[in-house]
Structure formats: C-alpha cells, structure tokens
Specification:
- Keywords: Acyltransferase, Transferase.
- This is GNAT family N-acetyltransferase.
- GO terms for molecular function: acyltransferase activity, transferring groups other than amino-acyl groups.
- The protein is an alpha+beta fold and 163 residues long.
- The protein has one domain: Gcn5-related N-acetyltransferase (GNAT) (Aminopeptidase, 3-Layer(aba) Sandwich).
- 35% of the residues lie in helices and 29% in strands.
- A 7-stranded mixed β-sheet has the order 1-2-3-4-5-7-6, with helices on both faces.
- The protein is globular.
- 29% of the residues are buried.
C-alpha cells in the first residue's frame, strides 16, 4: 500500500469528512478529559458550519490530503501568517492508519508547501493531551517555544526553521 499527499479544496466532500473526523476526535478527547462527556453533535455541526477555511487556500494557504491506497486517510493545513512564517494546523490521520508513515509525510509535505509560499519557518500549537502529535513534531525537528498566540486550547507551541 502506498501513500500520496496532494492539495484538496477545503470545502470538498473529502475535506469536510476529514475535518469532521478531526474535530470529533480532538473535541471528544478534550471533553472526556475535562468534563467526562463526548462532543455534543449539535456543537460539532455548528463548528463545522462556522469555518469556511478560506485561509487554507492559495495564495496564502493550502489544505493537504493524504491518501492510503487511494482512500482519504488524513489532512494537514498550512496558512501563511506573514511573509516568512507558515502555521501548520489541523494535522490528522485516521487512527487505524497511524504508525504507517502518513503523519510524517503530511507534515513534510506541509513544510514543502510552506517553502513554496516563501516561508522560512513553520510554527504550530497543540494541546497537552495530544501526546502523539507532540511526539511526532519533536521527532521531526520542531522545538518547543514560548506561546505565539493566545488560543485558549493551546498548551504547547513549536517552531522549526524551513531551510
């Protein structure tokens, strides 16, 4: 089985399905940890409807979709914050496909997209409970930094030069 990664319109049915899976997983983890419940389905639908993802479209961004054996498996977003700084966001891979190299390929593809946009560094934030993500970013050369935003859900911030 092989992996591919390619840009995808952020409003496509594939992107919408991956966004729903991503949001459900990270939201459920948060609510189960902090409130002992899963995400309310109505909240999920409101959150999805509220995002147009315009920042994940050229010329200032991109949504990348990973496919495994031609089936949508995950996604990663990149958006330019300024002329030199790209932000990696919404990195997600369906759980049964984790550990097969797809997440690393997604992040590396996002880094390449950032370079193509002219970025010289990539930043990101994540939460404490997303240990797999923090482990991946560290393994790929990201260094933890002081906060670069005031996102109420962010607990760890990372940066990596894009040479």
């Amino acid at each position: 089985m092989t992996w591919t990664v390619a840009p995808e319109p952020p409003d496509s049915p594939v992107a919408t399905a991956l966004w729903r899976a991503y949001y459900t997983e990270v939201s459920d983890r948060y609510y189960l940890l902090h409130q002992g419940r899963r995400t309310d389905p109505a909240e999920l639908e409101r959150e999805i409807a509220a995002h147009t993802f315009g920042e994940l479209q050229p010329p200032k961004g991109s949504l990348l979709v990973a496919r495994y054996a031609d089936e949508p498996a995950g996604s990663a977003g990149i958006r330019m914050l300024d002329a030199n700084t790209a932000e990696l966001t919404r990195v997600f891979l369906h759980e049964p496909l984790r550990g097969k190299g797809g997440a690393q390929l997604l992040v590396q593809s996002a880094e390449n997209a950032g370079r193509a946009f002219g970025a010289t560094r990539m930043i990101l934030d994540t939460r404490h409970d997303l240990l797999e993500a923090r482990t991946l970013y560290t393994r790929l050369g990201y260094q933890e930094t002081p906060p670069h935003n005031d996102d109420p859900y962010a607990e760890h911030w990372f940066s990596k030069p894009l040479h």
